[in-house]
Amino acid sequence: MSCASGPGGGLRHPLRCREPWDEECEKEAVCVIMCASVKYNIRGPALIPRMKTKHRIYYITLFSIVLLGLIATGMFQFWPHSIESSNDWNVEKRSVRDVPVVRLPADSPIPERGDLSCRMHTCFDVYRCGFNPKNKIKVYIYALKKYVDDFGVPVSNTISREYNELLTAISDSDYYTDDINRACLFVPSIDVLNQNTLRIKETAQALAQLSRWDRGTNHLLFNMLPGGPPDYNTALDVPRDRALLAGGGFSTWTYRQGYDVSIPVYSPLSAEVDLPEKGPGPRRYFLISSQVGLHPEYREDLEALQVKHGESVLVLDKCTNLSEGGLSIRKRCHKHQVFDYPQVLQEATFCVVLRGARLGQAILSDVLQAGCVPVVIADSYILPFSEVLDWKRASVVVPEEKMSDVYSILQSIPQRQIEEMQRQARWFWEAYFQSIKAIALATLQIINDRIYPYAAISYEEWNDPPAVKWGSVSNPLFLPLIPPQSQGFTAIVLTYDRVESLFRVITEVSKVPSLSKLLVVWNNQNKNPPEDSLWPKIRVPLKVVRTAENKLSNRFFPYDEIETEAVLAIDDDIIMLTSDELQFGYEVWREFPDRLVGYPGRLHLWDHEMNKWKYESEWTNEVSMVLTGAAFYHKYFNYLYTYKMPGDIKNWVDAHMNCEDIAMNFLVANVTGKAVIKVTPRKKFKCPECTAIDGLSLDQTHMVERSECINKFASVFGTMPLKVVEHRADPVLYKDDFPEKLKSFPNIGSL
Amino acid sequence: MQSWRRRKSLWLALSASWLLLVLLGGFSLLRLALPPRPRPGAPQGWPRWLDAELLQSFSQAGELPEDAASPQAPHGGSCNWGACFDTSKCRGDGLKVFVYPASGPISETHHRILASIEGSRFHTFSPAGACLLLLLSLDAQTGECSSMPLQWNRGRNHLVLRLHPAPCPKTFQLGQAMVAEASPTVDSFRPGFDVALPFLPEAHPLRGGAPGQLQQHSPQPGIALLALEEERGGWRTADTGSSACPWDARCEQDSGPGQTQRGETLPNATFCLISGHRPEAASRFLQALQVLAALQEMSPARVLALRQQTQFLWDAYFSSVEKVIHTTLEVIQDRIFGTSAHPSLLWNSPPGALLALSTFSTSPQDFPFYHLQQGSRPEGRFSALIWVGPPGQPPLKLIQAVAGSQHCAQILVLWSNERPLPSSWPETAMPLTVIDGHRKVSDRFFPYSTIRTDAILSLDARSSLSTSEVDFAFVVWQSFPERMVGFLTSSHFWDEAHGGWGYTAERTNEFSMVLTTAAFYHRYYHTLFTHSLPKALRTLADEAPTCVDVLMNFLVAAVTKRPPIKVPYGKQRQEAAPLASGGPGPRPKPQAPAPNCVNQIAAAFGHMPLLSSRLRLDPVLFKDPVSVQRKKYRSLEKP
């Protein structure tokens, strides 16, 4: 509970009210009111001038004292809090050296070794996570302690910079909870990032005495450098029972698929060196090896490649002859030539990432940052985040035994694919490698996705770089499906009060064979629809929906009454469409169920003089919109129009009482990436009493308004989604020299 | 009196103020004096250490780059791809599969599966040249158990395919062999090495298979949200009406007559809950996880996407035994190919990885299917491929007409008759290439490397087209790059009298095929035609040349699940209803192929993929009563 959410107090004292004490806020409000009344009484203008002078001085002095006192008190009301909160700040701003010390007796319990058969459904208690509306797991972090053995010797370094950063990132995220009872995942503050700095048995004992340890169930450990000499295990050696391990350098033998998370080995250079993104394309070197601790056998293989392929391969090593040793991490040498590391990686198309003693190498991060395509030569290595990341798109994995073939394998990759990989490599680094925070959050997201699989992040969201996400369209109706004709369509007639014309439309539309239901949207709140007995008698169900407000968007509401997928939106004055034309329109829609299929077509044009879009209703050779005064479309678009229309377009349309059809054209084109289909030849859409469509469109101001709509919508969508085409759909034999009697839709285009 | 009263009121005011002061001041003092108590519920978070700057890095400088190396790769007990599969045998042709012949008498199913693998592009008859040796272990009915094969070699490069749960006891150690079987257990399954198969019923169709039953994209309003699998194979439906699943199992409706038996019909519900081994656990499972509540929260957009994806996956990989086996081989081939394997998009969006060959390209935008997802557009140019069969007249007029198109990039002449190549060709601005063909009709659809554009205008030397017809058709193709766009059409129909499919080239109100003697399509279909069709079908096309059209239309329809597109053709109107040749000037002559051609191809496909269309795409102002000057494609309307 915070005051900011309550009425009143929040806005006046935003700083003050962010504090979580409810009653404080109320008190503050009372105070302000009282101060005001007191001040008024004291300084009442009618009072003071009439007093005697000596009294006046006496009183004024007295009042000033009181006033000063009050002001001081008032100040006090504000000050102490800031003093207090800075006190609190001080309490939080402790030193790492002052954390509580925990003594671990030598005989305290040790957890079982990691259970290799653990899976989410056997070792993880999902019931702790429960069903929650946000589909987010709650993560608790244990308080930092310093563990010492019986002799007071510390078990490990208290915490490393990176682990501190990692825990800070979790604590700042939406996952964090400080309520141990509500947590679904527990993160110990015992730092096991680097196994070399640990005393294994004692660290395990420290884990076992955590308050909710329970055999490590739902506990998550982060480790980047597992194993130790001489045989370097590929997973953390600390016995950890059922705890999940986010580890750098897993092999297929130690990685528990779907349980552990493979994470990168963080490269400190990520934070130190700023390598601006370099565009994809050919680079100076085709292949670079920049690792220094390579096994001589591998180095020989690589040098053989260099001899064979000359300039395009560069094999670097440690610099031996550099004077200052401190900088040697950032230098690499080839013979006597000195190169800056990691900058040199940007000069290469492919960069070798070879297994060292450990499978996970920090250089992978540097290589990705440089936009160099990693050539991973480390048999059985589980690449970081491989549960969700598609490494085929960003790297080349080569078996160790094929190392001598590396060059020809890489050469067989088409240039376009290489450029994709370069972009993808850099994107992986930016999204998941570049900071400890990115690594921590990606790890938690992966676990979150397992626990709430139905709300999991999709492959595309994990893997597509922002540029691809922007440029691509994922059509919501992607399955090529031709809906059965038997289903028919629902006609929706939007009407206000033109009953006579409405009845004619109903009568005409009811003649269309595939009509299965007719829905009248009665948009007039001041007048009741005609009595039941007065409506035309038609062969299909007719329903009248009364709306609460006269809004154009009512036409596109996803009414429960719509049972068919196909919807025909039709104005209450469109009586000139023949039954053949409507039936044909429906059949065209069946072949293009993801498009707007309509009769009168319109076009948008770029006005070079005015530098903006223009609406065109003249006889043109192109079409980019159809009017929804008569159009077939999938009912899903009603849902999209009502609930997913971007920006303020929906309200804008209702306020202007115009352009709902243009908005629908924008929406469908934007979400499907496809053009409209105009059906049948152009007709003069004129009728005695109607003003809509052509009649109104000719009006000059109307045209200006419609152009304005296009410009407005294009700016809200941030793009011009409409697609221009040069075709329309006619029946196969339209205007062909063929007996009219034998044509399926003879009555088309005639009026 | 007055002053007293005034003074009194003043004093009153003063004392009130003092009281206030004391009160407020007291509070403040009190607060200062007392230590701040911990705030209940206040987020504490991970502390910001005063000396965080002084913390040491988890790895010492130099430790990372210089970690000592050992040439010994980590190893373990079981197999993974790198350790147990020898890819060096697969160089060159990619995946070549040898299937062990059955030792004894085999069932009809076994026989047909063998035939289907033998007809596929993966098959080889030589075990020495094969990179994968396939051991079929599928005769559940006969109870026949295979014995250890000859080239076993501890199972290296072997795949043991078990379509039905193994009835045989393990007669030999599987060792390094990959296992493809249904419902493998987590403990024995080796990810990235073994292949998990769907559980197939005994009566699963061998080829083709029924298309998915989904008839509409979005769920029917009012149908049950969830159906639970029950004991004895029944289904219970949980209604959308029950808001969230209550804990006392009230979300299940009374199982009344609505309950259906498995095998007959599946329940009419948006989701089906299938609960592994123990159906009776389903309702408890439902309560515990509140599946229903989660489903109800799912947005319509997601439900829509899931529905469609199930249908796509079914159609692409599950609907027949042949598809399941080919998918298994494709998965293994992708492992061998490494970087040139199918990108994920090709597996997961229509038409699927079996129909989008990674040997053609690994860039999705090279295919006709993924332009939307890639945000790319088909190329603005086409290549005209003119097939010159007997009698072998150089199609001079046609070349002129095509070369006149602003979208034409090159003209290829496929010379496929006995006459010698003419020495001179008409002067055009277009690059003209002549290919000497092998006199086989199926050559028309060979993926010639000289074709440099995505779009192909396939022509017969006897076709006649005008430049504006070509222009308009190409602009239409750009809107539908995955379909065939043609001028002349034909139809298939079900012939009740003969109990088979019929073919007609007569003009009717609908059509399902376009003639490839004048049609635009994507160059990828040449690759698909040549590399994915069974050999028997291509031979059929060579033997009965009129069938080649039908075959190409079948192929494209099977991939796109859409009918082709027809555009207006000016010459058509001059002729009588059945297109008859022999008039003045050479005309393409669509001879009706023998009707059994359609039937043979349909049988080979396992189903009838052709779909009918009732529309033609015309220019927007086609034959409208408006000045011809305003029309872009005015010559299309000339009588």
TrEMBL record, chain A:
Keywords: Disulfide bond, Endoplasmic reticulum, Glycoprotein, Glycosyltransferase, Golgi apparatus, Manganese, Membrane, Metal-binding, Signal-anchor, Transferase, Transmembrane, Transmembrane helix
Source superkingdom: Eukaryota
Pfam families xref list: Exostosin_GT47 (PF03016), Glyco_transf_64 (PF09258)
SUPFAM superfamilies: Nucleotide-diphospho-sugar transferases (SSF53448)
Substrates-to-products reaction catalysed: 3-O-{[(1->4)-beta-D-GlcA-(1->4)-alpha-D-GlcNAc](n)-(1->4)-beta-D-GlcA-(1->3)-beta-D-Gal-(1->3)-beta-D-Gal-(1->4)-beta-D-Xyl}-L-seryl-[protein] + UDP-N-acetyl-alpha-D-glucosamine = 3-O-{alpha-D-GlcNAc-[(1->4)-beta-D-GlcA-(1->4)-alpha-D-GlcNAc](n)-(1->4)-beta-D-GlcA-(1->3)-beta-D-Gal-(1->3)-beta-D-Gal-(1->4)-beta-D-Xyl}-L-seryl-[protein] + UDP + H(+)
Key word Chaperone present: no
Pathway stated in the Swiss-Prot or TrEMBL entry: Protein modification; protein glycosylation
Cellular-component GO terms for this entry: Golgi apparatus; UDP-N-acetylglucosamine transferase complex
Gene Ontology molecular function: glucuronosyl-N-acetylglucosaminyl-proteoglycan 4-alpha-N-acetylglucosaminyltransferase activity; metal ion binding; N-acetylglucosaminyl-proteoglycan 4-beta-glucuronosyltransferase activity; protein heterodimerization activity; protein homodimerization activity
Cofactor(s) recorded in Swiss-Prot or TrEMBL: Mn(2+)
Protein's cellular compartments: Endoplasmic reticulum membrane; Golgi apparatus, cis-Golgi network membrane
Principal location: endoplasmic reticulum
EC number: 2.4.1.224
GO BP, sorted A to Z: cellular response to fibroblast growth factor stimulus; chondrocyte differentiation; endochondral bone morphogenesis; fluid transport; gene expression; glycosaminoglycan biosynthetic process; heart contraction; heparan sulfate proteoglycan biosynthetic process
UniProt membrane topology term: Single-pass type II membrane protein
Residue intervals passing through the bilayer: 57-79
Record domain Exostosin GT47: where: 134-413
Residues covered by the Glycosyl transferase domain: 489-734
Family note: Belongs to the glycosyltransferase 47 family.
Record text on subunit structure and interactions: Part of the heparan sulfate polymerase, a dimeric complex composed of EXT1 and EXT2. Could also form homooligomeric complexes. Interacts with NDST1. Interacts with GALNT5.
Matches recorded under PANTHER family: ACETYLGLUCOSAMINYLTRANSFERASE (PTHR48261), EXOSTOSIN GLYCOSYLTRANSFERASE 2 (PTHR48261:SF5)
Biological function: Glycosyltransferase forming with EXT1 the heterodimeric heparan sulfate polymerase which catalyzes the elongation of the heparan sulfate glycan backbone. Glycan backbone extension consists in the alternating transfer of (1->4)-beta-D-GlcA and (1->4)-alpha-D-GlcNAc residues from their respective UDP-sugar donors.
Name of the protein: Exostosin-2
Organism: Cercocebus atys (Sooty mangabey)
UniProtKB/TrEMBL annotation, chain B:
Major subcellular location class: endoplasmic reticulum
Limits of the Exostosin GT47 domain: 94-291
Pathways per UniProt: Protein modification; protein glycosylation
Membrane topology, record value: Single-pass type II membrane protein
GO biological process: heparan sulfate proteoglycan biosynthetic process
Gene3D superfamilies xrefs: Spore Coat Polysaccharide Biosynthesis Protein SpsA, Chain A
UniProt keyword annotation of Glycoprotein present: yes
Subcellular location: Endoplasmic reticulum membrane
Keyword annotations from UniProtKB, A to Z: Disulfide bond, Endoplasmic reticulum, Glycoprotein, Glycosyltransferase, Membrane, Signal-anchor, Transferase, Transmembrane, Transmembrane helix
GO cellular component terms attached to this protein's record: endoplasmic reticulum membrane; Golgi apparatus
PANTHER family named in the record: ACETYLGLUCOSAMINYLTRANSFERASE (PTHR48261), EXOSTOSIN GLYCOSYLTRANSFERASE 1 (PTHR48261:SF3)
Family: Belongs to the glycosyltransferase 47 family.
UniProt name for this protein: Exostosin-like 1
Species for this entry: Macaca mulatta
